[in-house]
Design brief:
two-stranded parallel sheet, Fumarase C, Chain A, domain 2, Fumarase C, Chain B, domain 1, 20 helices, three-stranded antiparallel sheet
């Protein structure tokens, strides 16, 4: 895999995914090296001055007025990261830690933090040797940066703390020694430079955005399968109708659903003068409106993320003219807001998906299908309880959709009197993304069974390909069997992108053949 070069321009979402999930190596550019060394020279000049400079010759936060003599400044930096590595709770996922490490390195590479090159190189080495600091879940308020999570990374640079190497828990000092990495002794300003950023919440935003792009396309697929299996109409997805309300996401979702349903013999079977299906229920008819609005929200979130990926977030910062100035750019509000927005739309997409699934199971609304899609209703329960599982997840997602960013608890003796809670918004969004994956998988599982039960009528080529792919691991309709493994097989098909990739491969082939 090609290395991700840091310092020749802003990182991208794809870069974050490649390093965090794919294990791609990182490399500081020559431009980054020059910028780091220039800003360090400015910090060292201030460190030698009798004038106090925040984070260089003073304490931190509410202790910013206390001057620290030269002989105690190394202790100041060491004490900072030790005291701030105060997290608690479950271990954060490896991909999240690698993402925040990459993004902190990206800020260091801007030459606005005053870090020494050897310290930046050590962080680079941790990523490239697969050494992942153990970061507890709780500790960040999303203001003054993700302080506690980043501090658990910073202490590892000094040879303290705990890491994972090849999946095994190790003492940091031993892991660094094994890989030939020399621990650093932090100098003036370096403690702050390592921990004063929004890197954790931003990393989780990038990963969630990557996942949601695929899941929203999958929501088009499961909606199309449900419309097809429930004998709904696709006339409402026509381009001229969608153009009356010119939201780009809505137009894209409707276009995608038209492609997915193209060539369906099931749909053709009720395109007759005696068909009385003038208007379907909202969960079928309005799928492009909801999936499309979610797309547009995701696009906004990505715009915010891309701006943040261009940022140099630290306090204080070293400006190009050598000044070192305090600022408030570490406040996580921009990222926290869009993390909350994404949780809201993902929960709503899941809620609509569950309503479509429920329609398959009710004989009053399923248009001729067996109760609960059961083989022998009464003896068999079919997918009755799969919908319970969906409903339980959706309820949890609605709770998680409550925004974290409207909360604030003052800290640091009221110096930090308004915080973003962006880390919390990011943590709950990860749960929402997982929940949406499971809800869509259950709809896919149920809709596939409904489509099978419409035989001898055949689905559209795209949706049929997805049913066929599912049937490689999940048998078709029949007497009740253990359902949990079927659900998990469908979850994996959705999570790894196979379901939507299978459908879109057929769609692209249809377009080429035209």
């Amino acid at each position: 895999m090609t290395s991700v070069v840091v310092g020749v321009g802003p990182l991208t979402e794809a870069d974050v995914v490649a390093v965090a999930r794919g294990g791609a190596a990182v490399e500081l550019s020559a431009e980054a090296v020059a910028a780091i060394e220039a800003s360090r020279a400015a910090v060292e000049k201030l460190a030698a001055s009798p004038e106090p400079a925040y984070g260089i010759s003073t304490g931190f936060g509410a202790l910013a007025t206390k001057h620290i003599p030269v002989e105690r400044r190394a202790q100041l930096q060491r004490s900072l990261i030790r005291s701030h590595a105060a997290g608690s709770g479950p271990e954060v996922e490896r991909e999240v830690v690698r993402a925040l490490m990459l993004l902190r390195l990206s800020t260091l590479a801007t030459g606005r933090t005053g870090i020494r090159l050897q310290t930046a190189r050590t962080l680079e080495a941790l990523l490239n040797h697969g050494i992942t600091p153990v970061v507890p879940e709780y500790g960040s308020l999303g203001c003054s940066g993700d302080l506690a999570p980043l501090s658990h990374v910073a202490v590892v640079l000094t040879g303290e703390g705990t890491v994972r190497l090849d999946g095994q828990l190790r003492q940091a000092a031993n892991a660094l020694r094994e890989k030939g990495i020399e621990p650093v002794t932090l100098a003036e300003k370096e403690g702050l430079a390592l921990i004063n950023g929004t890197d954790g919440m931003l990393g989780m935003l990038a990963l969630a955005s990557h996942d949601l792009e695929m899941l929203l396309k999958t929501a088009d697929l499961t909606a199309a399968m449900s419309v097809e299996g429930l004998l709904g109409t696709d006339r409402v997805f026509a381009a001229d109708l969608q153009a009356l309300r010119p939201h780009p996401g809505q137009a894209e979702a409707a276009r995608h659903m038209r492609q997915l349903l193209d060539g369906s013999k099931i749909m053709d079977s009720h395109r007759t003068p005696d068909c009385n299906r003038v208007q379907d229920a909202y969960s079928l008819r309005c799928s492009p409106q909801v999936n499309g609005a979610a797309r547009d929200t995701l696009e906004h979130a990505r715009t915010v993320a891309q701006r943040e990926l261009q940022a140099a977030i630290d306090n204080p910062v070293v400006l190009p003219d050598g000044r070192v100035e305090s600022n408030g750019n570490f406040h996580g509000a921009p990222v926290a807001y869009v993390l909350d927005f994404l949780a809201i739309v993902a929960a709503d997409v899941a809620s609509m998906s569950e309503r479509r699934t429920d329609r398959f199971l009710d004989t009053a609304r399923s248009h001729g299908l067996n109760a609960f899609l059961a083989h022998d209703p009464g003896v068999d329960s079919g997918h009755m309880i799969a919908q319970y599982t969906q409903a339980g997840i959706v309820t949890e997602l609605k709770r998680l959709a409550a925004p974290a960013s409207v909360d604030s608890i003052p800290s640091s003796a009221m110096q930090e009197d308004h915080v973003s809670m962006g880390w919390h918004a990011a943590r709950k969004l990860r749960k929402v993304v997982d929940g949406l994956t499971r809800v869509l998988a259950i709809e896919l599982l149920t809709a596939a069974r409904g489509l099978d039960l419409r035989a001898p009528l055949t689905p559209a080529p795209a949706t049929k390909a997805v049913v066929d792919k599912l049937r490689e691991t999940v048998p078709g309709p029949g007497p009740d069997r253990l359902l949990a493994p079927d659900i998990e097989a469908a979850v994996e098909l959705v999570r790894n992108g196979t379901a939507i990739a299978t459908a879109d491969l057929v769609v692209s082939g249809q377009e080429v053949s035209r």
